[in-house]
Design goal:
The chain is mainly β. Helices cover 0% and strands 52% of the residues. The chain has no helices and 14 strands. The strands form 4 sheets. A 4-stranded antiparallel sheet has the order 3-4-5-6, with no helix packed on it. The chain has a 4-stranded antiparallel sheet with strand order 7-8-9-10, with no helix packed on it. The mean pLDDT is 87.
């Protein structure tokens, strides 16, 4: 993993043991943590050890292939988009040693292509190959809303 400082990239970490393809990664830099979504349907949380190497502390087997995810480092909320159209919501404790399942959002009927979250509003936004954009309040205080689009959605940006 590379971090940029003074316009020069610096290698800050390497995974030595990778047994599957990594489809996506997110770095929680202040805690030396890397979250990965993997081809083998696993979600992994790896902590940097004293040796300087990253080792998995959590390996979560997912029921469906992971197609996207969003992690908020400040409040440690994780949203995982799946191939079957579901978005799974987890929280992660301060020590990053477990995942706590909060809720499943059955937002789509096809592959979730992107997931975004706004911590200021607690709104989750997801887009899918089913030509829809869905937004809802993760606290459950408001209903899910759907907007149909003419083409399949590939990404979203929400603040």
């Amino acid at each position: 993993f590379v971090q940029s400082s003074n316009k020069q990239p610096n290698l800050v970490g390497v995974f030595d043991i990778v047994t599957t393809d990594i489809n996506g990664a997110c770095v929680a830099a202040k805690d030396d943590v890397i979250l990965t979504m993997n081809q083998d349907r696993t979600l992994k949380i790896s902590l940097k050890r004293q040796s300087g190497k990253y080792w998995p502390t959590v390996i979560e087997d997912m029921p469906n292939p992971i197609t996207s995810f969003y992690f908020n480092e400040v409040n440690r909320k994780l949203f995982v988009g799946c191939q079957n159209g579901t978005v799974i919501y987890y929280t992660i404790p301060d020590d990053y040693n477990s995942l706590s399942h909060q809720r499943d959002f059955l937002n789509h009927v096809s592959t979730v292509t992107d997931v975004q979250f706004s911590p200021t509003t607690d709104y989750l936004v997801s887009v899918s190959q089913d030509k829809s954009l869905v937004w809802c309040d993760v606290t459950g205080s408001s209903n899910m809303n759907r907007f149909t689009i003419d083409k399949a959605c590939s990404c979203a940006q929400f603040a």
